[in-house]
């Protein structure tokens, strides 16, 4: 054990004579377990989409600590500006797992394995909201024609796909329907854009809007929901289907599923206002897949 | 109420006023310099602050302008608003080369993709820079966004500079309060200091006033404590003058005493002579009565002689008493003039001078009889002294219009020039340079009664002195209190 620990610590430091010796042993088959302690010391990289975690440093550190404890390994949380970057990193094996939006999941369903799905109001479901400034006269979705619209992310279901689907059903596109539109790369930014009148309407994750209405009521009260979509599968935690380390994938899945039974896990859930995590099959995301297919067909 | 002309204001007002005016001038100049400097510094600081603001914002906004990323541009502007606390941005706009809004910090006023109104754009400097308008408390700044030499847009912003102007107003107010306070304080200190410095002048004025009232007193030493050199010298000069005047007054009093004694002597010797003259005859008459009293004719004629002699003595004594007795109310009668003849006759007899007496006063005249008799007696005694041996002295008294005119003439050598000038023109305060106060007393008495003196000549007479005594108006008080006092003293003596 002492040797493993030593090896673990020194594996990052280039100490040629010992390293060469260990490699020699491994090649000779005299140290078959060498890869295990080396793997155990390698940080687990976990990707996060900018769901609403724009600046919640405390939550990130809690999540990092929780996962590290549960997995018994250091954890690195990876954030990027766009969904696409996280998806690309996951698909190219740079991440061990990630909490991604359901849209990229359905796009790459064949390559991804569902590890856990959040339970919101005891269901693994959420909605898309279309919001306007509280001073706006718009009452229904069609009233926002000709406005400047704020999307969240081109790979977001609630922040783009659902609205894009509604437009496809109307045989139009954002460029045709809206006077102008832009992406804010964050659901919270959509609220800011609409609240400040930079955009007259916006597409946002319903779960994020609900949580923000308690966390930042002064910002949320400047917006008003004019459209709520049907319930869709909640953005899942996924790993690569063809992972080299099945046990890690299972451990990550267990860590999320066990969250309600752990004090730190409960604190995290309380901040996220989630009830816990569950396991689910791809059928949960059929609604999302249908919409994506419709949109893809139009393009 | 009309203010007196500035030139006639007291020094204690004028000097503090001058100080205040100078202070106001200096304060205005200093305030102008301070405010100009403050304005310049504020503008320099504003340029530096806005330049730093634009540097930061343009670095963040340039990539977003390149991509046409509305949200990122808005986010950069929105974050910059709270980060640059020294710059109070009212609004900032990222303007695309097309003139449309990519994003603005105030999206309601400047919606995305709308054209920036021309009147708004006109407020900004045409090139990169800053334009300040103090009246509206606004400043406008602009910065081009350039990438590889191509313009990809422009950041323009309107800044609220009310805080800078408020600081200017506060500085101006502080300057006004401080300078105003200093001006008032200096004026007050100047007023008090000058009043204190000029206090010796007040002392000097009061002592000069005493001289006018006839009391020449030197300023006591206690009033000369901690005096400025200038006032010390003035006080020294004044005290020297006051002592000289006092000495002169003492001398005058002394001379008047001498004159009084001389006159008393003359009167006494005259009276003794007049009393003595009939005494021989009276004693002879007494002897005659003793020896021949039984003879009724002789007794009758002797008693008549005794009566005339005693009458003469009584007249002499009475005339003397009358002339030195204060009279009120004062009316001059013919006998007042004739009494003078009795008094001057012994002086005339000594030089065998003939008295030519023309008294044309027939009824009482409203003039100061005492003063006139005093003056006329002096003139007559002087005339007798000036007349030649066995010469002539003439008196003529007559009423002319509203005045009594008395001419006293003699055949002497004439009045010497200094004496003539003295009696005609000297003021009451001027004392004669020669011994004797006769002319001085005449001069004062005439002046007190508003009379006048003229010199003339007549046939056979070298000196004619005419004194005109105007009648007093009804109710006019009698003047010459000091002379009366003098007479009373003389009478008492």
Structure, explained:
The complex is a heterodimer of chains A (299) and B (493). By secondary structure, chain A is an alpha/beta fold. Chain A is 44% helix and 19% strand. The longest helix of chain A has 15 residues, at 57-71. In chain A, helix 4 (57-71) packs across helix 12 and helix 4 (57-71) packs antiparallel against helix 13 (263-272). Chain A is globular. A six-stranded mixed beta sheet of chain A has the order 2-1-3-12-4-13, sandwiched between helices. Chain B has 493 residues and is an alpha+beta fold. Chain B has a five-stranded antiparallel beta sheet. In chain B, helix 6 crosses helix 8 (334-350), helix 8 (334-350) runs parallel beside helix 9 and helix 9 runs antiparallel to helix 11. The longest helix of chain B has 64 residues, at 229-292. Chain B is rod-shaped, with a radius of gyration of 53 Å. The two termini of chain B are 59 Å apart. Mean pLDDT of chain B is 81; it is low at 477-493. Classes of the chains: A alpha/beta (299), B alpha+beta (493). Chain A binds chain B through residues 148, 150, 179-180, 182-185, 189, 192-193, 196-199, and chain B through 69-71, 74-75, 78, 103-104, 107-108, 111-113.
Structure keywords:
heterodimer, A: 299 residues, alpha/beta, six-stranded mixed β-sheet, five-stranded mixed β-sheet, 13 strands, disordered N terminus, B: alpha+beta, five-stranded antiparallel β-sheet, 58% helix
